[in-house]
């Protein structure tokens, strides 16, 4: 009896969305629940906010499941990864959506904004990828929710930095070093001399997009026959707590491109390792 029960979960498809108690992440969970056959996990760092979100989707007749996940807490990441490995034997769809942004009017010093923003949006998102990529099943889809601010920020970096971010041979270690260098230079007040714009959020997303390209190349090399597609995307300018009411898209409209990438049909070979906006591959 027990073996049959385990077999059921091992063969059930499963999706997981980080930071999905509100905003774009919540809308992605809604889209997956509507468009996909499988267990869809809404995750949140705060259990109460997560449960409230689960209840709001339940009132729409949808049935997402919940798991706690604070991407800034390595134990929380490891616990979630062990849960999905133990219950489902891995993950079919991972949407790395959680992020923070200081408001434009915020007067917090750029050094603090740099450290705090890169910690969540780049370093913690990378920790999620480090622990979850080995769990992605053949045919899996990985979507990193980045931003159109990434390419804008890239174009404001020195030519030397632009060349490294755009190169095909940049390694994960080199990228991590560059992101740390940004934080260090921000603390010393030396961003401009070192070729960086004072745009912590943009640099964090530039880092996440570059990381996506690096990890896609790794997957192609190490698991060439597994058909996994990994991409970064921009949801567009979306009305959420991050941006406010003036933005152009509703959260459901913002979920369209992440859900499209998550649901690329089996046997599809591209896009892979790209930055995608409005369902189209963008120049990098
Ligand atoms: P919101 O601020 O509405 O939502 C962000 C979500 O991330 C919240 O659920 C938040 O949880 C969660 N989060 C933050 N830190 C952590 C953490 N340490 N662990 C787990 N969850 C965390 O933002 P959006 O929905 O607008 O943003 C979603 C994604 O889209 C982000 O990656 C953002 O950068 C990107 N994006 C958004 C754009 C827009 O116009 N809105 C434009 C371009 C990109 P909590 O409620 O607990 O704070």
Key features of this structure:
284 residues; alpha/beta; eight-stranded mixed sheet; 14% strand; globular; binds NADPH dihydro-nicotinamide-adenine-dinucleotide phosphate
Describe the protein's architecture and organization:
- By secondary structure, the chain is an alpha/beta fold.
- The chain contains eleven helices and eight strands.
- It has helices spanning about 1-10, 25-35, 45-60, 75-90, 110-130, 150-155, 160-165, 170-190, 200-220, 250-255, 255-260, and strands at about 15, 40-45, 65-70, 90-95, 135-145, 230-235, 275, 280.
- β2 (about 40-45), α3 (about 45-60) and β3 (about 65-70) form a beta-alpha-beta unit.
- α8 (about 170-190) runs antiparallel to α9.
- The structure holds NADPH dihydro-nicotinamide-adenine-dinucleotide phosphate.
- NADPH dihydro-nicotinamide-adenine-dinucleotide phosphate (NDP) binds near residues 22, 45, 71 and 242.
Q: Into which percent range does the helicity of residues fall? A: 40-55%
Biggest β-sheet, characterized?
8 strands, mixed
Give the ordered list of helices and strands: HEHEHEHEHEHHHHEHHEE
Q: Would you count the extended β strands for me?
A: 8
**Structure ligands:** NADPH dihydro-nicotinamide-adenine-dinucleotide phosphate
Strands of the widest sheet, in order across it, are 3-2-1-4-5-6-7-8
Residue share in β-strands: 5-15%
Coarse morphology: globular
Give the C-alpha Rg: 18 Å
- If you average the pLDDT, what whole number results? 97
Helix and strand composition category: alpha/beta
Question: Which residue ranges are poorly predicted, with pLDDT under 50 across at least 5 consecutive positions?
Answer: none
Distance between the ends: 52 Å
Count of helix runs: 11
